[in-house]
C-alpha cells in the first residue's frame, strides 16, 4: 500500500471534514516553519523528494525510512511561500497520491502544491484564514541556474595529422536556466509557464581537427567572447532572445474543463494496454476539453471524456476518448484519433489517417485485473484487413505481494498505427507474449522472472523466427529483518531464439547471454556517511546467427562498475569505470580503448545568502558515465545496475566544473 501524506492548499477542505491532521508541522518562530513530508511504501528501496525549493534534483534530498516503512523528509520554509514537489520512488517520478492540491507539471503530470500560510492557519485552528490562504496561493516562481566549464582533451591521435598524446582540444562555457512560473491566476484557473532564459554554449577554445597549429577558435577569440558577455549577458549566453519553452493554462470548472498547451509542454495521455494517446510535445499547440467534476460521477456510473483539438505533427487533428466506469467493476474506453497533414483546416487531403480503439478493464476480484483492447487504423487509401488491426489481452494477479503474475498477448498488423500514440506498443508485424512473475515468500526476499516471446508472422509459425528472452531476478531486503538498512539486487538476461531458415522448416535454436547486473545499497551507516551504493553490470554484444557454427558470434563484452557515496553536509561522490573487451568473431568490435573511468563530486554549500549553491566537479578518461555533464551517474533505462553510456567518451577526456543555484 502506498500513501503520500502532506498538508497543502486543498487539504484544508479534508481537514474540516475529517478533523484530523496528516502532516507534522512545527512553527519555530514568527517567520520559520518546519515541515515533515511523509510517504508510506515499505517495499521501496529508495525515496527522494524533489521540488522547486531544491532545483528538482532527483538525488540530492533522500527521505529516511523508519521501522514502520514510512519515509520522511524535514525542511525549513518561510511564511508566504508556496512549495511544488514530487516524490522519486526507486527512480520513478510520482505525484504524491495524498496531495490534496496539485498543479500541472508541464509534462502531462501533476506536482504536489503546499501553501505554507494555509498550513500555519490550519494548525492554529483558523479554518477561514486557512481556506483564504490556500485560495490566494497565487503564482510561484522557481528556477535553477547552471553554469559550468567543459574542457576536452584527446587521449589518442587526432583524426588527421601528427598531433598525438594527451592534447587539449576545446573549452566551452555552458549555461542552462529555465524559469518557471506556476500557480493560480484566477478562480479554478492554473498557469504553468516555463521560459527558456539561458541555454547555450560559448566556445572559448577549439583546436584544429587537422592537427595544424592554428586553432579553429583561439584563446584570443575566447577572451573576446568572454569580454563581450557583460554588454549583453542574456543573448550572449543564450545565443538568442529568451523564449517560451512550455506553456500550460488549465481551467477546472464544475461542468467543463479546458486546457491549452504549447511548445514542449505535453498533452494528456491515455492508455488501456496500448498508448493510444502518448504524452508528446505540443509543438504548435492544442486545446483539450473535458467534463467537469459534477459530470464525472452519475450515480453508479463514472465518466471521463476528452476532446483534444491539436496542431501537432504539422497539421490539424483530433484525439478523443470516453471512459465509462460501471460501479468500480469495469471501465470501457473508446478512442478516436484523426490527423491531416494539410495546413488548412477544412482541406483534409487524401493522406489523412484515422485510428479507432476500444478497451475494457475489469476487476472481477480484488486480486485480479483483466484488460483487452482492439485497434483499427484506416485512411482513404488503406485496406481494411488484418494488417490494419491490432489487439491485446492482459491479466494481472496480485496476492498482496506474496505472489504476482502478469500475462500480456499482443498482435499487431504491419500497417496498424495510433497517430498520436506509441506505435511501438502495437508490436507492428509481430505476435508477442510476455509473462512476468514474482514472489515474496518472506519480507527479506523477493524473486521473479520476466519471459518474452515474439514472432514476425503468426501465420507462418513453422518457418518464421521465434525471439525469446528470460530475465530472472532476485532482491534481498535485510532492513526488514535486521537493524541494518542493506539491500541487494541481481538479475540476468538470456535470449533463446528459434532462427528462421527459408529452406529448412526444422529451424535451429540458439541462445545468447546478453546481460547481468548486481547492486548493493547500504544506507544510514553513520551521521557522516549516509549511504553507499555499489553497481556492477555485464553486457554482451553478438553478431548475426552463424549457421555453420550454429551459434551467435560474440562481438564484444562490456563490464561496468560504479560506486555512489552520500556524505553529510550535502557532499556526494560518484566513481564509475568501463572495461571493453573484443569478442571472438571476425566482425568483432576492435576496442582501441579497453578501459575508461569517471569520477565526480558535488557539494551543497552553506551560503544561504546565495540560495545555497551546489558546486559540481567531474573528470572522465575514455568514458563518460555522467548524466548531462553533471556529476550524477546515468544508468540504463531497464536496470539501475548497468551504466547507460558504454561506448561514449572513448578517445576523450573531460574536465567539468561548475555551480548550480536554485531559487
Global geometry: globular
| CATH architecture assignment name of the domain at 1-132 | Sandwich
What distance lies between the first and last C-alpha atoms, to the nearest angstrom? 34 Å
Find the CATH topology of the domain at 1-132.
Immunoglobulin-like
Helix content: under 10%
- CATH class categorisation of the domain at 1-132: Mainly Beta
- DSSP summary: helix tally: 5
* Poorly predicted ranges: 1-23
Instruction: Average the pLDDT over all residues and give the rounded result.
Output: 82
The largest sheet, given as strand count, sense and whether it forms a barrel, is: 24 strands, antiparallel, barrel
Count of distinct strands: 35
Full CATH superfamily name of the domain at 1-132: Immunoglobulins
What structural class do the secondary elements suggest? mainly beta
Radius of gyration: 28 Å
Proportion of β residues?
Answer: over 45%
List the main descriptive attributes of the protein structure presented here.
single chain, 663 residues, Immunoglobulin-like, 5-stranded antiparallel β-sheet, 35 strands, disordered N terminus, Ig_E-set, Amylopullulanase, CRP1_MDG1_kinase, AMPK1_CBM, signal
Topology:
Elements: E1 3-5, H1 11-18, E2 24-27, E3 32-40, E4 47-51, E5 64-65, E6 70-78, E7 82-89, E8 92-94, E9 102-104, E10 110-115, H2 116-123, H3 127-135, E11 139-154, E12 167-186, E13 189-206, H4 219-228, H5 233-238, E14 243-252, E15 256-266, E16 281-291, E17 297-298, E18 301-310, E19 316-326, E20 330-340, E21 353-365, E22 368-378, E23 389-398, E24 403-412, E25 430-442, E26 445-455, E27 466-477, E28 485-498, E29 509-523, E30 529-542, E31 554-567, E32 571-582, E33 595-604, E34 614-621, E35 652-662
Antiparallel strand pairs: 1-3, 2-3, 3-6, 4-7, 5-6, 7-8, 7-10, 9-10, 11-12, 11-35, 12-13, 13-14, 14-15, 15-16, 16-18, 17-18, 18-19, 19-20, 20-21, 21-22, 22-23, 23-24, 24-25, 25-26, 26-27, 27-28, 28-29, 29-30, 30-31, 31-32, 32-33, 33-34, 34-35
Helix pairs in contact: 2-3
InterPro entries: AMPK1_CBM (IPR032640), CRP1_MDG1_kinase (IPR050827), Ig-like_fold (IPR013783), Ig_E-set (IPR014756)
Keywords: Signal
Organism: Salinispira pacifica
Amino acid at each position: 500500500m502506498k500513501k503520500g501524506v502532506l498538508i497543502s492548499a486543498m487539504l484544508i477542505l479534508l481537514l474540516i471534514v475529517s478533523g484530523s491532521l496528516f502532516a507534522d508541522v512545527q512553527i519555530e518562530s514568527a517567520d520559520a516553519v518546519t515541515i515533515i513530508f511523509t510517504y508510506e511504501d515499505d517495499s521501496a528501496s529508495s525515496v527522494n523528494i524533489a521540488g522547486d525549493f531544491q532545483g528538482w534534483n532527483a538525488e540530492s534530498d533522500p527521505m529516511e525510512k523508519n521501522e514502520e516503512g514510512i519515509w520522511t523528509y524535514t525542511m525549513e520554509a518561510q511564511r508566504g511561500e508556496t512549495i511544488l514537489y514530487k516524490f522519486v520512488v526507486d527512480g520513478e517520478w510520482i505525484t504524491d497520491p495524498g496531495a490534496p492540491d496539485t498543479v500541472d507539471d508541464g509534462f502531462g503530470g501533476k506536482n504536489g502544491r503546499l501553501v505554507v500560510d494555509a498550513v500555519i492557519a490550519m494548525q492554529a485552528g483558523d479554518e477561514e484564514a486557512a481556506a483564504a490562504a490556500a485560495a490566494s496561493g497565487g503564482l510561484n516562481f522557481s528556477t535553477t541556474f547552471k553554469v559550468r566549464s567543459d574542457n576536452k582533451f584527446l587521449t589518442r591521435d587526432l583524426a588527421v595529422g601528427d598531433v598525438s598524446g594527451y592534447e587539449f582540444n576545446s573549452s566551452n562555457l555552458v549555461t542552462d536556466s529555465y524559469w518557471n512560473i506556476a500557480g493560480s491566476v484566477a478562480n479554478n484557473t492554473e498557469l504553468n509557464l516555463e521560459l527558456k532564459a539561458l541555454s547555450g554554449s560559448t566556445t572559448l577554445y577549439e583546436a584544429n581537427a587537422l592537427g595544424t597549429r592554428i586553432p579553429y577558435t583561439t584563446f584570443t577569440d575566447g577572451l573576446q567572447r568572454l569580454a563581450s558577455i557583460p554588454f549583453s549577458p542574456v543573448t550572449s549566453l543564450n545565443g538568442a532572445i529568451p523564449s517560451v519553452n512550455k506553456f500550460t493554462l488549465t481551467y477546472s470548472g464544475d461542468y467543463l474543463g479546458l486546457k491549452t498547451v504549447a511548445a514542449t509542454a505535453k498533452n494528456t495521455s491515455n492508455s488501456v494496454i496500448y498508448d493510444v494517446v502518448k504524452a508528446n510535445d505540443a509543438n504548435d499547440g492544442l486545446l483539450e476539453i473535458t467534463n467537469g467534476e459534477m459530470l464525472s460521477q452519475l450515480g453508479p456510473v463514472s465518466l471521463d471524456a476528452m476532446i483534444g483539438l491539436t496542431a501537432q505533427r504539422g497539421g490539424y487533428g483530433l484525439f478523443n476518448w470516453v471512459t465509462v466506469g460501471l460501479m468500480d467493476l469495469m471501465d470501457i474506453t473508446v478512442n478516436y484519433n484523426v490527423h491531416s497533414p494539410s495546413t488548412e483546416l477544412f482541406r483534409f487531403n487524401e493522406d489523412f489517417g484515422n485510428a479507432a480503439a476500444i478497451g475494457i478493464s475489469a476487476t472481477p476480484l480484488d486480486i485480479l485485473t483483466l484488460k483487452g483492447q482492439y485497434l483499427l487504423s484506416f485512411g482513404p487509401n488503406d485496406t481494411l484487413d488484418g494488417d490494419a488491426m491490432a489487439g491485446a489481452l492482459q491479466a494481472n494477479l496480485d496476492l498482496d505481494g506474496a505472489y504476482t503474475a502478469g500475462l500480456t498477448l499482443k498482435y499487431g498488423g504491419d500497417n496498424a498505427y495510433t497517430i498520436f500514440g506509441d506505435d511501438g506498443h502495437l508490436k507492428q508485424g509481430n505476435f508477442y507474449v510476455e509473462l512476468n512473475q514474482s514472489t515474496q515468500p518472506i519480507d527479506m526476499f523477493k524473486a521473479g522472472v520476466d519471459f518474452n516471446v515474439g514472432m514476425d508472422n503468426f501465420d507462418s509459425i513453422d518457418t518464421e523466427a521465434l525471439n525469446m528472452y528470460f530475465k530472472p531476478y532476485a532482491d534481498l531486503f535485510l532492513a526488514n529483518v535486521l537493524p541494518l538498512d542493506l539491500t541487494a539486487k541481481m538479475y540476468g538476461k538470456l535470449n533463446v531464439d528459434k532462427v528462421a531458415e527459408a529452406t529448412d522448416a526444422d529451424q535451429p535454436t540458439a541462445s545468447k547471454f546478453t546481460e547481468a547486473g548486481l547492486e548493493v545499497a547500504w544506507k544510514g551507516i553513520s551521521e557522516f556517511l549516509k549511504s553507499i551504493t555499489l553497481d556492477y553490470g555485464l553486457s554482451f554484444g553478438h553478431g548475426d546467427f552463424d549457421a555453420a557454427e550454429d551459434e551467435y558470434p560474440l562481438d564484444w563484452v562490456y563490464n561496468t562498475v560504479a560506486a555512489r557515496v552520500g556524505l553529510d553536509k550535502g557532499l556526494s561522490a560518484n566513481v564509475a569505470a568501463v572495461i571493453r573487451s573484443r569478442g571472438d568473431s571476425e566482425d568483432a568490435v576492435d576496442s582501441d580503448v579497453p578501459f575508461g573511468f569517471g569520477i565526480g563530486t558535488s557539494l551543497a554549500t552553506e551560503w544561504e545568502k546565495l540560495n545555497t549553491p551546489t558546486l559540481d566537479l567531474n573528470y572522465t578518461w575514455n568514458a563518460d558515465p555522467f548524466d548531462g555533464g553533471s556529476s550524477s551517474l546515468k544508468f540504463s533505462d531497464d536496470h539501475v545496475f548497468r551504466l547507460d553510456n558504454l561506448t561514449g567518451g572513448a578517445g576523450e577526456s573531460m574536465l567539468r566544473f561548475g555551480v548550480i543555484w536554485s531559487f
